From TrEMBL:
Listed name of the protein: Uncharacterized LabA/DUF88 family protein
Start and end residues of each NYN domain: 18-175
GO molecular function per UniProt: RNA nuclease activity
Region (Disordered): 222-250
InterPro entries according to UniProt: NYN
Composition bias type Low complexity, residue spans: 225-241
Organism this protein belongs to: Thermasporomyces composti
Length: 329
């Protein structure tokens, strides 16, 4: 008598995918405050945390298969006594609040240790197959490595940086996937505690205006009137009011980064990039981040600036190896 065929699901059951979202609130708030308002301290803005958590849950559901186990919300409070806001968050479904200590200087203590402990426990007990880590501290690299050793996939989320990078490079390297939460995604849930008057806000120069060396008030003065336009001074005014980074400055930054890499990474590593002028995506991103750190502003809204940056970089590399820029030999 033959053995009856079993349904495919019974013959080869597959492990159910389940994930947790671990959020370093200190990192999330600080990075969002900087990119949205240029704010340095949490008291400068307010956060609609319950709605923010809901959006992050929805974002995770759209990116990861399986079911959400829960959200871990790592924050800090003086003497670990939860604030009113933290009590509200703790009452949300599928959210667990973990509190570190907030010292007199406003510094968080013990938060990273709690993240490492929870990530290790989740992985060791097989509670999740995937873990989302919204954080930026290099101290979490060891926890990521340990969880991966148990077979857990680590999905690192970061907040769009104002410029450069706001996450440790090694943490980015070790993650299985990396995603950046845009400022537009977070903006509806953050607001300034004391909004600036309209007039004051309008006279604060943007990074583009800083590059151009003009404040809004200065551009108003420079704007030609009808008689000035009629007298032929329009072209001079247009060139002065053009926004964006200065080409020679960006090219110099590109050369500076190339020189630094030659000294720190060695000529042999830089020679591997030849003949150019194309750069591997990872190296091109590193070049952009280094340049933005030097400038203190983002180059991402200016595609032409990235071209100038590469030109400066390759100019220095070609000089180093005595290569004719046109022929590549």
């Amino acid at each position: 008598m033959g053995v009856p065929d079993l349904p495919a699901s019974a013959a080869a059951p597959c492990a159910q995918r389940r994930y947790a979202i671990l959020i370093d609130v200190g990192y999330l708030y600080a990075a969002a405050g900087e990119v949205l308002f240029g704010a340095r301290e949490r008291r400068e803005y307010r956060v609609q945390a319950d709605e923010l958590i809901r959006v992050l849950q929805e974002y995770g559901a759209s990116r990861l298969p399986g079911e959400l186990l829960r959200v871990y919300w790592y924050d800090a409070a003086a003497d670990r006594v939860p604030t009113v806001d933290q009590r509200v968050i703790a009452a949300l479904p599928m959210v667990k609040v973990r509190l570190g200590n907030l010292n007199k200087l406003g510094q968080q203590k013990g938060v990273d240790a709690q993240i490492r402990s929870d990530l290790d426990a989740l992985a060791r007990h097989g509670a999740v197959t995937d873990a989302v880590l919204l954080a930026g501290d290099e101290d979490l690299v060891s926890a990521v490595d340990a969880a991966q050793a148990y077979g857990v996939r680590i999905h690192l989320w970061g907040v769009e940086p104002a410029y450069g990078s706001n996450q440790a490079e090694r943490l980015v390297w070790e993650a299985d996937t990396v995603e950046v939460l845009s400022a537009d995604l977070l903006r509806p849930y953050f607001r300034l505690a004391h909004p600036l008057p309209t007039q004051a806000a309008s006279t604060t120069p943007t990074p583009a205006q800083v590059f151009a060396g003009l404040t809004p008030a200065a551009r108003t003065v420079a704007r030609p009137n009808s008689s000035a336009s009629a007298s032929g001074s329009t072209s001079a005014t247009v060139s002065n009011s053009k926004l964006g980074p200065n080409r020679s400055t960006v090219e110099e930054i590109g050369e500076h980064v190339a020189q630094k890499w030659i000294l720190t990474r060695g000529r042999d590593n830089i020679r591997d990039l030849l003949p150019g002028p194309l750069l591997p995506t990872v190296i091109d991103t590193e070049l952009l981040i280094e340049a933005e750190k030097e400038l203190g502003h983002s180059l991402r809204p200016y595609p032409e600036a990235r071209v100038w940056l590469r030109e400066g970089f390759w100019a220095r590399v070609y000089r180093e190896f005595d290569i004719d820029r046109k022929s590549g030999k």
